[in-house]
Amino acid sequence: MKKLLLILTLIFSAGLTAQEIKVSGVVTDNTKEPLPGTSILVKGTTKGTSTDADGKYTISAAVGDILQFTFIGYESKNIKVTGSTVNVTLAESGELLQDVVVLGSRSAPRTVTESAVPIDVISMKEISSQGAQVNLNQILNMVAPSFTSNTTTVADGTDHIDPAQLRGLGPDQVLVLVNGKRRHTSSLVNINGSPGRGSVGTDLNAIPAFAIERIEVLRDGASAQYGSDAIAGVININVKKATNKFDIALFAGSQVSKGSNDHRGGNDGNNAQVDMNYGTSLGKEKSFINATASFQLRGQTGRAKDATGNLFNAFNAIEQRAAEAGTNINELFGNINNTPNSAQILGLIKTYAPQVGYFTAPQQASILGATTIGAMQTALNFDATSGELAYRNLERSNFNMKVGQSSLQSAQFFLNGAYPITENLEVYAFGGTSYREGEAAGFYRRPNQSRAYTALYPNGFLPEIHSTINDVSAAAGLRGKIFESWNFDLSNTYGKNRFDYNIQNTSNATLREKSPVEFDAGGLGFSQNTTNFDMSRKFDKLNVAFGAEYRNENFQINNGQPESYNSYDINGGVVTGSTAANIKATDFYGSVRPGGSQVFPGFKPANAVDQGRNSAAVYADLEYDVTEKWLINGALRYENYSDFGGTTNYKLASRYKLTDNINLRGAVSTGFRAPSLHQIYFNSTATQFVGGVPFEVGTFSNDSKAAELLGIPQLKQEESQSASIGFTAKIPEAKLTLTADAYIVKINDRVVLTDQFSRPGGNPTAGTPAAQLNALFDSANATAATFFANAIDTESKGIDIVISHKATVGNGLTLKTDLSGTISNTQRVGAINASPILEANGQVNKYYSETSRIYLEEAVPRVKANLTNSLSVNKFDFFLRNVYFGEVTDPNTVDVNGDGRIEGSIINGQVVETEHPVWGGKVITDLSVAFNFTESTKIVIGANNIFDIYPDTNYGPTTAVKPRLVNGAIDYTAAPVTVDLTNSNQFTYSRNVSQFGQNGRFLFARLSFSF
Fold first, then answer.
1. Which of 558, 574, 694, 1009 would suit a FRET pair with 916, their CA atoms being 20 to 30 Å apart?
2. Is 132 exposed, middle or buried (0-12, 13-18, 19+ CB in 10 A)?
3. Which DSSP string do the residues of 690-742 spell out, in sequence order?
4. For the chain, how big is the Rg over CA atoms in Å?
5. DSSP string of 775-812?
6. Which residues pair with 248 in a beta bridge?
7. DSSP per residue over 86-126, as a string?
8. Nearest 5°: phi and psi at 604?
9. pLDDT in tens, 553-571
């Protein structure tokens, strides 16, 4: 009987051991705080799960199985199952790079050092609470060396949406994901003078930083895995999932700098922000909903100096005296050369001129002696600035431009949620909305200029661009398991961005007194809808993944009100090509007044666009652990676009473990970027500035008649080949990790925005290239044109290094140190892909000008490094960050070396000025101190750029000889000219390039509560 009982007991025990049971528990850290998102894996199987927002989990396992617990920044732990409850406490790890990531692979999550491609993981918890930066672009610019983004000034819409670049490539060559799903791009096209000119990027600042848990940055080509745009890499933004928690952050700061208030000191650019985040369970295990709201008021900064140059002429002085007496001289003429009121105008001028006390006797005599309008124009052709400033009680600073950070008001919301329907099926959704209003300004319209109608603005005016940016996104899907062991994810993601222009404090000078002072100039819109279906399964050492994607895109241009784009004659009719010169509106001196809303002419009905396209893609992805040491990964993707056809791309990546602590890794891939709808269809007539000189230019769409006539081909995809090689190392004894990766990226048929092609003019001999080009421009009804074109091939090379260390000394003291850096270089290779007729007319350099070369190759720092130290001592947290921004080159030219001439080179048979200012590298230091009153209350006080560092100062008026071509050689015997890159003392620092902005020191305080 005893033997029978013993046998039954053994049988029962064996059955119990083999039978799976439900194991549950809670995972916490040393402070007993839950660790949501901890990965739990049944060792030796593919069975796994993760903890919910409260650190809870449930998994099926047998008694005796080993559960493996891993979490970002914590030491992994293996626990043997002995019962139905397994609670685990994880200790923090010194190996900071052991973050678990899913980006770059469709297999099970791996640590960063074990991945086959370089990935940065940026935890937002510490950065968003300790740093001075509150928007995503600036956070990444200070944290990730391979990432570059800077605010621009006096650059139209680009003042409000910051172009962002990865590895020195274009803003449109990096793909942005949110929770692993493709994010839509901005509707704005960067057409003005700033890095990223001609590109369309993603508006990262439309996502509230407070909603983000962490960011994964894949620094490697990934088009074969994720599709178009992923040439430089992928940025994946993971949104918060926490529940049973309400966080509030109150932020306030100001630019307390020597340069504040146009270099008068004090403070400006006041910034106030309120962030709130709340999460709760939906009543079922692993269900959650997490909501974020963010509100910001950001003031403008002023970094101009007092305006120099002429402001008032003699006529301004006289018309002011007449206006004070109730007489408007300007209303007596529309065109000064065609008015029946000449005698009355002359009489009024002679009546009020004697009231200008500072006119000299000879000047007064010339005025009184003038008997015709022409003679009076000559008599009044002198500067009256000093006298008028004194008379009107004005300072030169009253004529300063708004140079610096634009003002901004924003309200943003984001939601993230999931709900398990069954054990193997979950529904999820996330999305948000962002509403921002920005204000920037253009060049000051001085009263002595024809574009300033002084009857409306006696002292001239500073026109303002008021932008309204609306961004909406929504994603929903189902994910889980089907066919027992296949993982699937079916999702739909929609996004839309609108950018509307409202121009204020301005005028249409041709309408004179009848001009509005505020204009609806139209706007831009872009929407995208993406449907994905993904499947994956692990077969022992092989992970198989495949899927499909269908995407719809739409781009719109909405026209503005007629007064924003038309010019009007003196009778109120719209100016056309046949309008006689003597009925066009002029100022007193006979200069024709420009039409449209000053600073930003509105989009015309002819510019209006509503164009769409669709694309479909299929992909396959295999990842195989050949041995315990050797991992290989391969991906293949075919994508077809309705407008330009299909493209096939591949990727091969591998990682080999030399030892337990040293890995080698490398990858080769092809990639592509579909030309954006914006680049294909954008067209506009806009005021652009080069060296401070305004000119009207027509940007014609790629599908236009002008493009066809001038030989500009239809845009096609950019194609890339890239390779990377690197290694990762861990030194557990020193709690040190190191990664280093070198890369090369070659891009063919890169899309650029050309410079202005022009009609040769004159009377060239019939049949010559000039005569042919004249005829083509005439057929296109154009005299000057800018296009988007696949003009160049480029090659980018670089190396990224990341070193991390963490030490827990004891007695509540913890030190974290991160050192990272990047060195990169981009150059054009091969010939310019030029139109034969334009090349024959010597305009090949307009395809890819010296200015465009600088923007592409040298306008962003090619060397960048970051050293961050975080020290925690009991209730205090100390944060110190030093970021080195390497030198950049300005696209403008000037006599830099002081030898009296601007150096040039002969390029494609033409002389090109090549002597550019180079702005030196700088170190920007951030410092903050935090005190934790309680576990739920924390205050942080700190500074960004604590030493008040500015870029190198710009070049003021410089007289030099410009190069010219004489008998096939460069000649420097022309008359000297004066070049002023500051534009009359307004751009103290370059407006075209900037490593870190031009705002100086920023002091801030942040009060955080957690309930």
1. 694
2. buried
3. ETTEEEEEEE--TTSHHHHHTT-PPP--EEEEEEEEEEEEEEGGGTEEEEEEE
4. 32
5. HHHHHTT-SEEB-EEEEEEEEEEEEEEEEEEEEEEETT
6. 276, 1009
7. --EEPPB-S-TT--EE-TT-SSS-EEGGGSSS-EEEEEHHH
8. -85, 160
9. 999 999 999 999 999 999 9
